[in-house]
Design a protein that fits this description.
The chain is α/β, with parallel strands linked by helices and 564 residues long. The chain has helices at 2-9, 25-34, 75-78, 82-97, 113-120, 128-143, 159-165, 178-188, 240-250, 261-264, 269-292, 301-313, 318-332, 340-352, 366-374, 383-398, 402-406, 453-464, 487-500, 511-522, 527-534, 542-547, 558-563; strands at 47-55, 59-64, 67-72, 104-110, 146-152, 193-194, 206-209, 218-219, 230-233, 253-256, 413-416, 419-423, 439-443. Helix content is 44%, strand content 12%.
């Protein structure tokens, strides 16, 4: 590279003199010590590993022998050129899959010709930063006597690595703020290893990762002994009990930071509900273990069955017992769910007490719609009345849960020619890898303006514009100080409105979802449309099992069919 630049400066005068940078001294020293016995063996092209790598502007991915790993770029890396990132991704792929390989040949599959050329030529002269990372790759390989060959592969054939490079898993990238971690160090001392981290958020030089990571000392902290480790751990909330169990078994010492719901993600509502249910069962289990005088973390199978029998005789349903089994799996290991006698016990309970839908029958929407019609014209009613009308109409015409309604943001509302479209990018109960997030359509209902959800939304936005200040959530509280309305607040609004309509107290706020989907089905709306709008998959049986209920009182779009 320096020779090339010197030639350019001297106008290609090969007789001119050039100054050598001190950075080359190490190379000259190496050649001077090895020139007499240096050799280049004939390569057999018999590759011990075939490693695929790819990159995007958000992260990198790698695959080998059916296993995939991935990671995110940090802020500085995201600003780098894609050619540089391709070389870094190839380096990370090597570190993940070939760290324990020695004296062999490895084939790298890359869909970037520049990266392929730089690796095969052991560098280049045109771009020093690309040459620098290539040099690091080969020095790493030299320490292990590895010989690498890069081969071009099309993006279509590099699907696994490409998919990994596009995974954005924000749940693994939480970390304590620097000032907070410094406060931990001042109080408890400097830890030696971070048990739950990635290369981007590690707090110690040594760390354990969730999956293969180029800089991690191990994968999955639960697979190593913690006995002599002075550890630091900032895990997901759901792992707390398992970690406490591990600390007890290994007699370990360290700093464990609880990851509260406000940190782990305010939209992970369903996950917190599951944790809450499991904790209730674990409280029962802890009391039972004290009374029976045994270790709640290492029970006998007979003690588990006895506990399940006790709560069953106390009136627990199959679902409650299954939650209990799930809770025990947290602290006693997955084996609880695989014990044959427990599986047979639960199956027997199910046969005696089959799980029933919450509602055997559902109310007719007619009284609800009539009450909504009374709230017209919109200009004549208070903020509370306007809020009630909008939230109930949205619950009816979208058939979505209160959680979804609480996550509607004004920034995600788009006015179209015949109404509004609303995107819900936040995580909801039905969010799954590869699934689509909800998109709500609110049509203008010209057949009956008194029940038009689009008109009601437009009026609500106008009325609340000067009240919400910087609040982006659609629904705000109806009294000062105005703030974003939580899911439970929306639930209270719906419950109160159903009470005004004469709907009995036995029907909760979620019943409106049952009533809406059942009414749409009775009005011959395509079942596929109902499932799609309500957030169920095409093959889902949830509607048939739990939502399609006989109406006590005996086409077009979903909303129009219900409101017509």
């Amino acid at each position: 590279c320096q020779k090339y630049l010197a030639l350019l400066e001297s106008e290609r005068n090969y007789d001119a003199k050039m100054s050598l940078s001190a950075i080359l001294n190490r190379d000259f020293d190496w050649w001077e010590s090895r020139i007499s016995d240096a050799f280049n063996p004939i390569r057999q092209q018999e590759y011990a590993l075939e490693i695929f790598s790819d990159t995007s502007l958000t992260g990198w991915g790698a695959a080998c022998n059916g296993e995939t790993t991935y990671g995110a770029w940090d802020e500085l890396e995201r600003k780098k050129h894609i050619n540089y990132l391709e070389l870094v991704a190839a380096f990370y792929a090597l570190q993940c899959f070939a760290a324990r390989r020695y004296d062999c040949e490895i084939l790298l599959r890359i869909d970037n010709t520049t990266a392929v050329a730089y690796i095969n030529q052991m560098g280049g002269i045109q771009y020093p930063h690309l040459n620098g990372i290539t040099r690091k790759i080969w020095q790493w390989c030299k320490q292990r006597s590895l010989w690498i060959t890069a081969s071009y592969i099309s993006s279509q054939e590099n699907a696994e690595a490409d998919q990994g490079s596009r995974i954005i898993n924000v749940d693994t990238e939480w970390e304590l703020a620097h000032w907070a971690f410094q406060a931990v160090i001042r109080r408890f001392g400097v830890p030696k290893i971070d048990l739950f981290a990635t290369r981007n958020n590690k707090k110690c030089e040594k760390f354990c990762s969730w999956h293969r990571d180029p800089e991690a000392v191990c994968v999955d902290a639960f697979t190593i002994k913690w006995t002599k480790l002075k550890f630091y751990a900032f895990p997901p909330f759901a792992l707390i009990l398992r970690i406490l169990r591990k600390i007890q078994i290994d007699q370990a010492q360290g700093v464990l930071i609880e990851n509260p719901p406000s940190v782990s993600g305010k939209n992970d509502v369903s996950g917190r509900d599951i944790v809450r249910q499991n904790f209730r069962r674990l409280e029962d289990w802890a009391k039972f273990s004290v009374v029976r005088n045994f270790d709640m973390f290492a029970p006998q199978i007979s003690q588990i069955v006895e506990w399940l029998t006790v709560i069953y005789k106390a009136g627990a349903s199959y679902g409650t017992l299954n939650t209990g089994r799930s809770a025990l799996s947290w602290i006693c290991g997955d084996r609880v769910g695989k014990i044959p006698i427990i599986s047979r016990f639960l199956k027997s309970v199910f046969n005696k007490k089959p799980t029933k839908a919450k509602y055997e029958r559902i109310y007719d929407l007619e009284p609800v719609l009539k009450e909504l019609e009374k709230l017209y014209p919109l200009e004549d009613f208070s903020l509370q009345d306007l809020t009630d009308k909008l939230v109930v109409l949205l619950a009816i015409v979208t058939a979505h849960r209160k959680q979804t309604l609480s996550l509607i943001k004004i920034s995600n509302i788009r006015e179209i020619s015949n109404g509004y479209e609303i995107e819900i990018p936040d995580r909801i109960k039905t969010t799954r890898p590869g699934s689509c997030q909800p998109s709500l359509t609110l049509p203008t209902f010209r057949g009956n303006p008194k029940l038009c959800v689009a008109t009601t939304l437009k009026r609500y936005l106008a009325v609340t514009k000067n009240l919400r200040e910087s609040i982006d959530s659609l629904f705000i509280t109806t009294r000062k100080p105005f703030k974003a309305a939580a899911k439970d607040t929306i639930s209270r609004w719906i419950r109160a409105f159903l009470g005004k309509c004469g709907i009995g107290e036995s029907y909760g706020p979620h019943s409106i979802r049952h009533a809406a989907t059942s009414a749409a089905f009775k009005k011959v709306v395509n079942i596929a449309v109902i499932k799609r709008l309500a957030g169920w998959s095409e093959k889902s049986t949830v509607f048939d099992r739990f939502y399609n209920r006989p109406i006590v009182k005996e086409n077009s779009t979903f909303a129009e069919a219900i409101l017509a």
